[in-house]
Amino acid sequence: MSTRHFLTDIDLTAQEQDRVLNLAAWMKQNPYAVKALAGPQTAAVIFDKTSTRTRVSFAAGISALGGSPLIINPGESQLGHKESIADSARVFERQVSLIIWRTYAQAGLEEMAEHSASPVINSLSDDYHPCQLLADLLTVRERLGSLQGRKLAYLGDAANNMANSYLLAGVTAGMDVRIAGPAGYLPEERIIRAAEDRAAETGGKVTITADPSVALADADVVATDTWISMGQEDEKEQRMQLFGDYRVDADAMDKASPEAVVLHCLPAYRGAEITAEVLDGKQSVIWDEAENRLHAQKALMAWLLVESGRADEETVE
Ligand code: CP
Ligand code: NVA
């Protein structure tokens, strides 16, 4: 049985994504029933960038699965500077059951996975944030009951990790995903092509536009993300100007369905990409979304361990 990794949103097929979301919903109701890391086995959670939600949800989730989290903060290991990623993977795989890594380059995650018999999970890279999307989809399912055909509008920095993940995970779930951002800050062609290929399998839809009204028309879900991702702090002034027309505010919400829910992965800059009125308003589901990181990732970890032959099938039945 070969090792399954989760490096991008489309590493799960539509059926597998649905399975993980169903498992997450069940595990939310039965938080200590699945012990896929009993032993306790250790799971390494490595950070090259800072974090609140990812750190807390993985630490709590690994413990709830019967395991022991090993948190490695930025600059605390030899990984990537004194020692190659491949050599680090060879050390990790012999001692930990899962490698969860927040880093910059997607290529680094791919190299880690190539050299590791333990599943590798992308907990944010410059290109994708797939764990966040599992939590977001779980939240939308809870609120709207279904994902297939639902219209999802993402506004703002449409060239960042969250935009790419909304596109890929959204179409995997059969959603009608509209991504809106200024010219030059839209998803790369390779991401759009991958999303279109996946959409052709699932009945999902891809729209890439510079017009926020096109994205928002009758949307069931309105999502945004910071205009200044980690590592872009020097571009703050320029970015505040660039994305001004893509703010999620009351006017934007008027264009969406009156029942629409609002997502933001957090941390948020109230008054920049989203107004306080919307973020703290009735349509916002951001705190459920943040909580669901825990449930979604627990399900993902258990599922990957079973699929990789590292936990019994009965663990998740
Ligand atoms: N949404 C998210 O990943 O938050 P952190 O950066 O706090 O982990
Ligand atoms: N796009 C943001 C997401 C933070 C969770 C970043 O990469 O900083």
TrEMBL record:
Any one annotated GO CC term: cytoplasm
Pathway assigned to this chain's UniProt record: Amino-acid biosynthesis; L-arginine biosynthesis; L-arginine from L-ornithine and carbamoyl phosphate: step 1/3
Superkingdom: Bacteria
Chief localisation class: cytoplasm
Boundaries of every Aspartate/ornithine carbamoyltransferase carbamoyl-P binding domain copy: 4-142
Keywords: Cytoplasm, Transferase
Cited PROSITE patterns: CARBAMOYLTRANSFERASE
GO MF entry, a single one: amino acid binding
Matches recorded under InterPro entries: Asp/Orn_carbamoyltranf_P-bd, Asp/Orn_carbamoylTrfase, Asp/Orn_carbamoylTrfase_sf, Asp_carbamoyltransf_Asp/Orn-bd, Orn/put_carbamltrans, OTCase_ArgI
Main EC class the enzyme belongs to: transferase
Leader peptide range in chain numbering: none
GO biological process: citrulline biosynthetic process; L-arginine biosynthetic process via ornithine
Record-linked Gene3D superfamilies: Aspartate/ornithine carbamoyltransferase
EC number(s) stated in the UniProt entry for this protein: 2.1.3.3
Catalytic activity: carbamoyl phosphate + L-ornithine = L-citrulline + phosphate + H(+)
Subcellular location: Cytoplasm
Record family assignment: Belongs to the aspartate/ornithine carbamoyltransferase superfamily. OTCase family.
Xref: HAMAP family: OTCase
Name this protein carries in UniProt: Ornithine carbamoyltransferase
Upper classification of the organism: Bacteria, Bacillati, Actinomycetota, Actinomycetes, Micrococcales
